[in-house]
Automatic annotation (TrEMBL):
<dbReference type="Pfam" id="PF18701">
    <property type="entry name" value="DUF5641"/>
</dbReference>
<feature type="domain" description="Integrase catalytic">
    <location>
        <begin position="10"/>
        <end position="199"/>
    </location>
</feature>
<dbReference type="InterPro" id="IPR012337">
    <property type="entry name" value="RNaseH-like_sf"/>
</dbReference>
<dbReference type="InterPro" id="IPR036397">
    <property type="entry name" value="RNaseH_sf"/>
</dbReference>
<dbReference type="InterPro" id="IPR001584">
    <property type="entry name" value="Integrase_cat-core"/>
</dbReference>
<protein>
    <recommendedName>
        <fullName>Integrase catalytic domain-containing protein</fullName>
    </recommendedName>
</protein>
<dbReference type="InterPro" id="IPR040676">
    <property type="entry name" value="DUF5641"/>
</dbReference>
Length: 318
């Protein structure tokens, strides 16, 4: 495996080097009420190559004009990037053939617009999706669960734009590593810190996932979709941080003072419960299976299978 490119490792402003990809189509209604017609819309994902910050935009159709307007909205809110990397469209599967055709047919128009703005627009090699693994992973995080939680619920363009913005906040709230090595510091570094200088937070709302969908208003239904997405995605993110090993041997990399994410089934959106290891308790066979964790709300005891360690500074360096 080769070294990471300079755009991935050299510190600079967020969204200076960007990867972009499309997902969809998603079916929405053209208006509220009876007689509404189903139309297609698409998800456009911008991801910062340095800090993995995510920006999601809803796009009404697959035209060069719609893409350029999406790019203008992105630049207005996130600043002008120096370079934009993109698929060349040939690696899309048949279900997304229209996206691939759109990119192939509009390469020159998009490149001309980027050139006039002083932006380098670069396409990766054909049939090499692993060259754009960072934005493919971002699309996977957003698209797979979004399709499952939206299902047959058809919402308007305004509502799906709101949903994309809330999902963007969820993805930008994920903990990356501890902010400091202090045993009394329970704050992690998140992509949101690079965007607004502080963690992403969500307004408190009642749990709606167990409510009957027919009894919900349109706004409550949208909030239910967001909470459902959070439940699915944060459990997947936690499981990726865990190291799956046999219980017969102690291969845990947990040490006293390490910051960990605590797996909770009913955590509210954007609320990651974190703590630091206070004590490790070995069993009669000298294998550690239980730990005491110091949290902002006191000391709790959990098994190691419910703890997900965050990368340390040494591990991030290499």
């Amino acid at each position: 495996m080769g070294n990471l490119p300079a755009q991935r490792i050299n510190p600079d402003f967020p969204f200076l080097s960007v990867g972009v990809d499309y997902a969809g189509p998603f079916f929405i209604t053209n208006r509220k009420g009876r007689g509404a017609r189903l139309v297609k819309c698409y998800l456009c994902l911008f991801i910062c190559l340095r800090y993995k910050c995510v920006h999601l935009e809803a796009v009404s159709d697959l035209t060069a004009e719609a893409y350029i307007m999406t790019l203008r909205r992105f630049i207005s809110r996130r600043g002008k990037p120096v370079e934009i990397y993109s698929d060349n469209g040939r690696n899309f599967v048949a279900a997304s053939k229209d996206i691939g055709n759109f990119i192939n047919e509009n390469k020159e128009t998009i490149a001309d617009f980027a050139g006039n703005q002083g932006i380098k627009f670069m396409f990766i090699v054909a049939y090499a999706p692993h060259f754009g693994g960072i934005w493919e992973a971002g699309i996977k995080s957003a698209k797979n669960h979004l399709r499952r939680v939206v299902g047959n619920c058809h919402i308007t363009f305004e509502e799906i734009s709101t949903l994309f913005a809330q999902i963007e906040a969820i993805l930008n709230s994920r903990p990356l590593c501890p902010l400091s090595s202090s045993p009394n510091d329970f704050l992690p570094l998140t992509p949101g810190h690079f965007l607004i200088g502080r963690p992403m937070t969500a307004l408190p709302s009642p749990a709606l996932c167990d409510r009957n969908e027919n009894q919900l208003t349109r706004y409550e239904r949208l909030e239910r979709i967001r909470q459902h997405f959070w439940q699915r995605w944060h459990q997947e993110y936690l499981s990726e941080l865990q190291q799956r090993t046999k219980w017969r041997t102690d291969k845990s990399r947990l040490n006293v003072g390490d910051m960990v994410l605590i797996t909770e089934d009913n955590a509210p959106p954007l609320a990651w419960r974190l703590g630091r290891i206070l004590r490790l308790s070995p069993g009669p066979d000298s294998i550690i299976r239980v730990a005491d964790i110091n949290t902002a709300r006191g000391v709790i005891r959990r098994t190691l299978t419910r703890l997900c360690p965050l990368p340390t500074a040494e591990e991030l360096r290499g």
